[in-house]
Design a protein that fits this description.
Layout: H1 4-13, H2 22-28, H3 31-52, H4 60-78, H5 90-108, H6 110-115, H7 124-145, H8 147-157, H9 159-162, H10 177-186, H11 194-215, H12 218-230, H13 236-252, H14 255-273, H15 277-291, H16 300-309, H17 313-342, H18 355-377, H19 385-397, H20 410-428, H21 431-441, H22 443-455, H23 460-475, H24 479-498, H25 502-515, H26 524-533, H27 537-547, H28 550-560, H29 570-592, E1 594-595, E2 599-601, H30 605-617, H31 621-636, E3 642-643
Antiparallel strand pairs: 1-2, 2-3
């Protein structure tokens, strides 16, 4: 566990306006309101168990609206109406009460919604309910995702109204405002469709598990484990940041909470070890971004992808293993090269926890995550697995006194469940309006067919369009929205043009939407990390793009060779994994100026090695052989292309302390 001094330092590292104010707002509410909210959160978790395990039969729409009634009010009460609303006031209570009343009413009307026509509306009161829900959910989108997110959601959700004025493939038949809003709220192709289904039937279980893991100290365990494993290695604090952020990000499923949560600890530690502020911030941004792609608990896109492609979530977990490991291995190689060039030693052994002691203290977490993977991959219990894992975690904590859940811990666990679920629903529910806007006009298949026509016999222009859309939407923090749009338009086009693997296409889209968080000029994760590291945001984002380079080319590689996501013969998987491990080492070495197990590179060799690394990793025999020949030739030219240095590869010798001041 972190000591009090480290906790204080980590909190001080986060700028005032980036700190999570939800706890302060929670504590400002009257006790009766908090008790009511806790009761609602507990009821929501119980309702999920009842529905998912089929204990009591419920209509799907009834269940969805009940979940909204129990968790959407949290959004208005925990998130401020404006920046200066530090305590909960009337502008938070009114929408909370209104959304509860409207969604509870719709839960009561569930049978009528299923068996009667609500689109278009048949009665004026139906339109009033639809408009009320639409406006309130947009307000939740503004509070949870910001003003830009709100503008994008409104523009795309109301697309059917002005689609008749759009040119070419963007044209759609004329639609009224009332029909558009009612479609967004009441249709199974919009708010009651894939996004809400995934949240209510799959994500909710994983969020409950994540809340339990956080409450029982899993975050501290993984941080200590990373310290024990990598703390004394060369550039130890940075390697700890890579591993800890991967662990924590997999549990949180949020890039930005990962940056603030682990970055407040790891960034100051990296700076004290001698890493420049911009490098520390960039590395944390990259490591946090990869957390959304790290099995077994990935981001919301992975769950939506499973539903969208009708693929077992366990298959997606397996498919994500190799790309995510290659990505984090790339970050490791970058850190090692930088530390070797700048003689940044590890942390003193006496300041680090013991691996043996850490594993003994945290063995329940390892068993639970192993059990979760077994349930997902082998038993294929997507919806049930996190509930079984939660039950196992609770049972195992009784064997460790320090981890045991006591009565006074229960309110905090219920609070964490309510907070995580409300913020997830507040961000994801509005994206279903984007889906509704595309589905209501019928433009999605038209766009797909037009992309096929534009691409002709070449997949390159279609891929370029898709990558551009992914990055633009991802830069705005709309990763789920980017995925939904391109899953409807780009994915069918790629399947028709090139006959590519369906899962590879959808993972390609998800990866490129995610990497926008570290892509300049609007690299939100890097900008956020720069606030903590007190570095220039542009320099930090440029460094993040360089450190995270693996994330840019790996999706292209597995798109053309699905064996890299375990969608092909195992012998091809083995061959191309080995080729890509070598490629990652070479690319990171070229980027940092020091090739692992070789030495310092001359400046002229670095761009050549970078290109050669890409050729080696690309799953095509001629390019791979050509890349190997180039690398072999450069390594053979010792003295001309590289020179040995004093740094030894592998763990650094025992350090007497942190010998570097933070570089400027």
């Amino acid at each position: 566990m972190l000591n009090d001094k480290e906790v204080a330092l980590s909190q001080a590292a986060v700028p005032e306006d980036l700190r999570d104010r939800t706890l302060e707002r929670w504590q400002s509410m009257p006790g009766a309101v908090r008790a009511l909210l806790l009761t609602m959160s507990a009821a929501g978790a119980t309702l999920a168990v009842v529905y998912i395990f089929g204990i009591v039969p419920l209509l799907d729409v009834t269940y969805y609206f009940l979940l909204m009634a129990l968790y959407l009010p949290w959004v208005y009460l925990l998130l401020p109406a404006w920046k200066g609303e530090n305590t909960v006031g009337i502008f938070s209570y009114v929408p909370a009460i209104a959304i509860f009343g409207l969604t509870a009413f719709m839960a009561y009307m569930g049978r009528s919604l299923v068996f009667q026509t609500w689109v278009p509306v048949q009665h004026t009161w139906q339109l009033v309910v639809a408009v009320g829900l639409y406006v309130l959910i947009l307000e939740a989108a503004r509070r949870a995702g910001g003003l830009i997110f709100l503008v994008i959601v409104v523009a795309l959700s109301l697309y059917p109204i002005y689609a008749v004025y759009m040119p070419g493939m963007l044209w759609g038949p004329p639609t009224s405002l009332s029909r558009t809003i009612s479609f967004n709220i009441f249709s199974g192709d919009a708010m009651l469709g894939v996004v809400t289904r995934v949240v209510g039937e799959t994500i909710i279980g994983f969020l409950i598990l994540a809340a339990l893991l956080v409450a029982t100290g899993a975050a501290d365990f993984f941080l200590n484990l990373a310290l024990a494993l990598m703390g004394k290695a060369r550039g130890g604090p940075a390697k700890v940041a890579v591993i800890a952020s991967g662990f924590f990000g997999s549990l949180s499923g949020s890039i930005f909470s990962n940056v603030v949560g682990t970055g407040s600890v790891t960034i100051p530690a990296m700076k004290r070890a001698g890493f420049p502020p911009h490098y520390a911030g960039a590395l944390e941004a990259c490591a946090s971004t990869g957390g959304m792609l790290m099995p077994p608990v990935m981001g919301a896109v992975a769950f939506i992808m499973a539903d969208f492609t009708n693929t077992a979530y366990g298959v997606i977990v397996l498919a994500a293993i190799i790309p995510s490991v290659l990505y984090y291995f790339g970050l490791y190689c970058h850190v090692d090269g930088y530390a070797a060039r700048n003689n940044i030693q590890g942390m003193p052994k006496e300041d680090l926890p013991s691996v043996r002691k850490t594993l003994i203290e945290g063995w329940p977490f390892i068993i639970v995550l192993g059990f979760l993977v077994y349930c997902l991959v082998f038993l294929r219990l997507e919806r049930l697995a996190p509930f079984y894992a939660s039950a196992l975690l609770i049972a195992l904590t009784f064997f460790r006194k320090e981890l045991r859940i006591r009565l006074h811990h229960i309110p905090n666990i219920i609070y964490e469940i309510g907070k995580m679920l409300s913020q997830t629903i507040g961000l994801l529910l509005p994206t279903s309006f984007i889906l509704g806007g595309l589905m209501a006009t019928g433009v999605a298949p038209v766009i797909a067919s037009e992309l096929v026509r534009m691409g002709g016999d070449s997949v390159v222009p279609v891929l370029a369009i898709g990558i551009a859309v992914c990055i633009v939407f991802g830069m705005l923090g709309m990763i789920v929205a980017a995925y939904l749009m391109l899953a409807l338009t780009l994915a069918p086009a790629l399947e028709q043009i090139a006959g590519l693997n369906t899962l590879a296409i959808h993972m390609f889209i998800a990866y490129y939407a995610t990497l926008a968080a570290i892509t300049p000029p609007v690299a939100l994760a890097a900008f956020l990390a720069s606030r903590i590291s007190n570095s220039d945001p542009i320099v930090t984002s440029m460094t993040a793009a360089r450190l995270g380079i693996v994330l840019y080319f790996i999706p292209i590689f597995f798109l053309f060779e699905p064996a890299l996501i375990l969608q092909g013969p195992l012998y091809l998987t083995a061959i191309w994994v080995l080729a890509n491990i070598l490629a990652v080492i070479i690319i990171a070495g070229a980027s940092e100026g020091r090739l692992m197990y070789v030495g310092r590179l001359r400046l002229w060799t670095r761009p050549i090695l970078f290109v050669a690394g890409l050729l080696i990793g690309f799953p095509e025999w001629i390019s791979t052989v050509a890349g190997l020949v180039v690398v072999g030739a450069i390594i053979a030219l010792r003295g001309l292309s590289w020179e040995p240095d004093a740094a030894s590869d592998g763990p650094a010798p025992r350090s007497s302390g942190l010998t570097h001041e933070p570089a400027q």
